[in-house]
Input
Amino acid sequence: MEIFILGFFALGYLILAGADIGVGMLLPYLGRTAAERRTVIAAIAPFFLGNEVWLVAAAGVLAGLFPLLEGELLSGNYLAVVALLVGWIIRDMGLWLRGRMPGARWQTFWDGAVVGGSWTLALAWGVIFTQILPVPIVAAVMVALLFAMHGLAFAGLRLTGELRKRAVLLTGGSGEGRTYALTAAALTALGVLAGADLDLAASAADPTTLSLLVPVTLALIPFLVAAQAWVWWTFRARVTGPSYL
Output
């Protein structure tokens, strides 16, 4: 059961947060002007904080239920994990600060932070996956491009007009829903392959710890899923203008 819990949170993060990471990576392509970039960011604005909760939950499950594996992953991928955290912080700083002051230079700088942080996040995940599987380090670029394609498909589902046309141009015309499903499946397969290559059973916590933490975690999952579903339902309409970011 503990393996299911870890997989649930990890795969949920890859699918949900992978979309807003991909949108951030391709922000200059999707939004050619400051106004367009504001609208593109509005496509992910209601979701990105909630999506990050899945990573926090996955990290908590890893630390509590798989403490040995946590140590191995952190020590074996120290630089990639640091890069991931730095990219995460820079990306979020860009999203929060870009609209806090007027001026083209200010917004351009923080838009650059969104793009740079998003690429750093995607490439850091790519490096981590190449270390786990293991595959050549060049495959990290392919993982990053998968995040980008996932983001394009999500942008196609969220945007309208010319912005949507740009998003679907590289993802199969009007089939953004199909493309999103395919990229989500690819991210899921990537996560499953990485999980299968880890000795999860041998690195699990002792039975006493599992008997305490597993029921608590299972009880919290419905609340997380319900909150996520509520956010998606509330902001289900396509974006037509800028948001608070």
